[in-house]
Amino acid sequence: MVRRQLYYKCTFLIAICIFIVCLAGLVGCTPSYPAYTPSTPQEQQDTSQLPDSPSNLTGEPVSQQVVSLQWSDNSNNEDGFTVYRDGNIVATIGKNSIIYQDTGLEAGQTYQYAVRAYNEAGESGTCSCIVKTLNPPLNVTINYIGVKFDHDPSELFQGPGDIRLVLVVSDGKQTIEEIIPPGEGSYQLNDYETMELNQRIFHTAAAGDYLKVGIIAYDDDPETLVSDMLQAALPVLGPLLGIPYAGEISAIFSAYEEQTGKPLFENKDDYVGYFEGLWGSDESWGIGQHNAVGTEDFRVWLSIWSDNQPSPIPKPTLLPDVTIQSVDVPAEVEVGRDYTYYVTLRNGESRSVTVTLKIHSSVTGDVSSQSITVPANSIKDVPQTTYFEPAGVRTVTYTILYDSQELDSVSRTVEAEAPEAFSVNFIGWYVDGTKVNATTKDETVTARITLSGGDAGQYQLRIRRDIVWASDETVNELLFSYDGVSDTIVLSFTPPYATGEASTDGYHIDLIKDGYIVWTLTDAYPPRLRVTIT
Fold this sequence. Notes:
Elements: H1 2-28, E1 55-61, E2 67-72, E3 80-85, E4 88-94, E5 99-102, E6 110-119, E7 122-123, E8 127-132, E9 138-147, E10 161-170, E11 175-180, E12 187-189, E13 193-204, E14 210-219, H2 226-242, H3 249-260, E15 271-280, E16 288-293, E17 298-305, E18 322-327, E19 332-334, E20 338-347, E21 353-361, E22 365-374, E23 378-387, E24 392-402, E25 405-417, E26 423-431, E27 434-436, E28 438-440, E29 445-452, E30 457-467, E31 473-482, E32 486-493, E33 504-513, E34 516-520, E35 530-532
Parallel strand pairs: 19-25, 28-35
Antiparallel strand pairs: 1-2, 2-5, 3-4, 3-6, 6-7, 6-8, 9-13, 9-17, 10-11, 10-12, 10-14, 14-15, 16-17, 18-20, 20-23, 21-22, 21-24, 24-25, 26-27, 26-29, 29-32, 30-31, 30-33, 33-34
Helix pairs in contact: 2-3
């Protein structure tokens, strides 16, 4: 009985639970169907109509080679977007796109971008923008420095100078101002000496619109506290040196003095020289090597580079600006003669320079070597006398050296020829243009001879009265210059005596050079001249 009652109770509870579950199904388990909303024409994917134009195109440089583009998608019927750079298609991307990265660009370049939506009906209107990629990274390295003169040449002690540099480098975004070497150090340099630094003085990941490099070199003088003064002057001097225009150092010094009321260098001998360089982006910021640049007595070797540092250059030499301006040695000479000519030297330095002039012949070897001091900013004619022997063509080389290092060299080709045999030809005696063998003592007679070959130089033509048993008497003479090639010489006289008068036998001619008779008429009459009284 009790077991049956328990069974009925359990069955009742189960029935109630089933009823509750079914009731819940009627309320919460009803199938769900989407609500029907009629479509509007604007929302339909109608590709028979042009898509609406994108808008708000912007571009940002990500790096020197990448630009990121972003725009607003205003259509729902495009098949994709076309990206243009400078009028050329660079990409076609899918629908609903709103970003694109353009790669493979050049640093510091400006590009015109445009984006259009497209579908089978064609392309939409355009949205555009202009973007400039980041400028390239920039580095400035001082490879070498050198000085010409770091002292007054009148000083008794001319030891090495204590050289220091004031540096101001700016690209418009970043500026460095410093004195190197730091602390109390200096670069020990003698006249015309160079020193390797290989020190990077400027770096930027993306250059500005220009690069300005200003360097002042000075000889540090503890007595005048030059470095202390320049360190204190940097707040004023730095901006003057970093201004993006090419100004003369004298103008910068003047501007400094105007602002501070005192000169930058109270002792002018402390100032060695200056370099200033200014390059725009259109000049690639001056990227490359700048060798032996500077003014006054300062020279610097700079490397301006972007990604890859250039290979180091060999250590340069710094030599005075002395050159051979001209050599006027004749191209053709005669063997056995001394020739005097000039070697002209030019000194472009502000102080006198002593050089060695060496002359070398390809035939006879070294000819001469002499020390020559050329005054500052001037030329000097150096006379040379050279004896050319033997015959033939030779190359004569003229070289000037400073401290055993060659400054300049000039070569000339000289042909030395054996002189032509000397020949004298007596043409005759002439009276009033008529050739005669005899004349009267009242008439003027002209003697004519021709010369060819032989030595050039000064000659003397002499007419003598032939006196029997006595020394002959000169009645007329002529000094003349002969070129050693050919010439016709004439000499006139009026015979003072007839033949037979005052022991006169007749008249004849001598040709004299250097005090020696080199030619004379034969003893016969003719060609010697007889003179009658009437």
